[in-house]
């Protein structure tokens, strides 16, 4: 594939690292917003190659991880219905709800299907006219265009037995919430490249200005991440706080105009609860008035479900960058990807899962276990 | 819908959001939808910029060189000072 290998070239990585070391004179804390970037950083050990003075804080950009417990419980209740085919991306199946997960619902006889694209769910709806087909529409701005198009197609084709359980979240309000938190240590952001591929970069200069924080749009390959860090450090060292785009090959300033037009037709901004973090004002999307009939929460009675979060899981602190997964007592013991206590251990983009996959041995050595 | 080749594996992808994409062009695909075209000129520019940076030989060199220098001039680098 083009521009994947090239952007992990070790020789060029060494040059970038050298530049970062040369530029760094003071301690800086930089947050990578996106879970895909967290995964890449831990997988390639980038955080360990950086100067000691550059600390990477892992952000909340794992859509599976921040989907609120209430919504997971609603998904479980809908999926358990005999008249429903419940479709989801695979990584949602093991996300713990209050007392079950979708996998369990499936083993108890629920018709839960893993799909690759929301369009697959639409196909299932056409093939099963006597069933209600529900798609679990979670994700950031990157995933939203797919779900928007699917709902739009359902409306256009009159597929009345399709609905979307929506829990979309948005990056810019999350950046604002992080900066406003009294415990915030973040001094610079790597913004999520593919979110900006869709939305463009216009939302970020006001944030950089208001919070006096550099924001660098960054890709996912090792060189992309190193370059994002390098440019953030350069801004920090020289006291600047601007939006910079280090991922121009995939991010035009205006984003994707057809996708943005579809998004503003199908969705409207709403307050959204983030798992482990709490409600962030105007931080998500729900279906707009025009498409409200496709909202699974309207179609099925899902209100008044009692929710209870795990008492041991500290994923909220992990998601806010307040602790690293190692610091959770359950990490690698009670909590593993096979038996996750929190969503951050389930998703490949979750920080706990990334540490478990790539840093487990280190932990074992460190604790002498 | 169009067929997109992911390093040898073909998949159906919706191209509605990249209406100008042409056969042979690279696109960024997310959950079955192309969300952006890949700008090759920009990709090459970025790679060229990285290559042009060069390693900062004078100040740093690689680890071996630093170690060698430290031996020759003890005290001039942190490694040297530690001896
Ligand atoms: S290791 Fe498990 S229990 Fe601990 S914070 Fe992560 S997901 Fe939660």
How does this model look, in words?
The complex is a heterodimer of chains A (369) and B (83). With 369 residues, chain A is of the alpha/beta class. Chain A contains 16 helices and eleven strands. Chain A has helices at 10-23, 35-43, 46-49, 63-66, 69-79, 102-107, 118-127, 144-157, 171-180, 193-199, 204-210, 222-237, 257-266, 296-299, 315-319, 351-367, and strands spanning 28-34, 54-61, 84-88, 111-114, 132-139, 162-169, 188-192, 215-218, 243-245, 267-274, 278-287. Chain A has a six-stranded mixed sheet with strand order 4-3-5-6-11-10, with helices on both faces. Chain A has a five-stranded parallel sheet with strand order 2-1-7-8-9, with helices on both faces. In chain A, strand 3, helix 6 and strand 4 form a beta-alpha-beta unit. Chain A is globular and about 65 Å long. The two termini of chain A are 41 Å apart. Helices cover 35% and strands 23% of the residues of chain B. Chain B is built from three helices and four strands; from the N terminus they run ββββααα. In chain B, the strands form two sheets. Chain B has a two-stranded antiparallel ribbon. Residues 66-83 of chain B have low confidence and may be disordered. Classes of the chains: A alpha/beta (369), B alpha+beta (83). Iron/sulfur cluster binds at residues 312-315, 318, 325, 328, 330-331, 335, 340-342, 344-345, 352 of chain A.
Summarize the helices and strands and which ones pair or pack.
The complex is a heterodimer of chains A (369) and B (83).
Chain A: H1 10-23, E1 28-34, H2 35-43, H3 46-49, E2 54-61, H4 63-66, H5 69-79, E3 84-88, H6 102-107, E4 111-114, H7 118-127, E5 132-139, H8 144-157, E6 162-169, H9 171-180, E7 188-192, H10 193-199, H11 204-210, E8 215-218, H12 222-237, E9 243-245, H13 257-266, E10 267-274, E11 278-287, H14 296-299, H15 315-319, H16 351-367
Parallel strand pairs in A: 1-2, 1-7, 3-4, 3-5, 5-6, 7-8, 8-9
Antiparallel strand pairs in A: 6-11, 10-11
Helix pairs in contact in A: 1-12, 2-16, 8-13
Chain B: E1 2-6, E2 9-13, E3 27-30, E4 33-37, H1 40-53, H2 63-72, H3 78-82
Antiparallel strand pairs in B: 1-2, 3-4
Residues 312-315, 318, 325, 328, 330-331, 335, 340-342, 344-345, 352 of chain A line the site of iron/sulfur cluster.
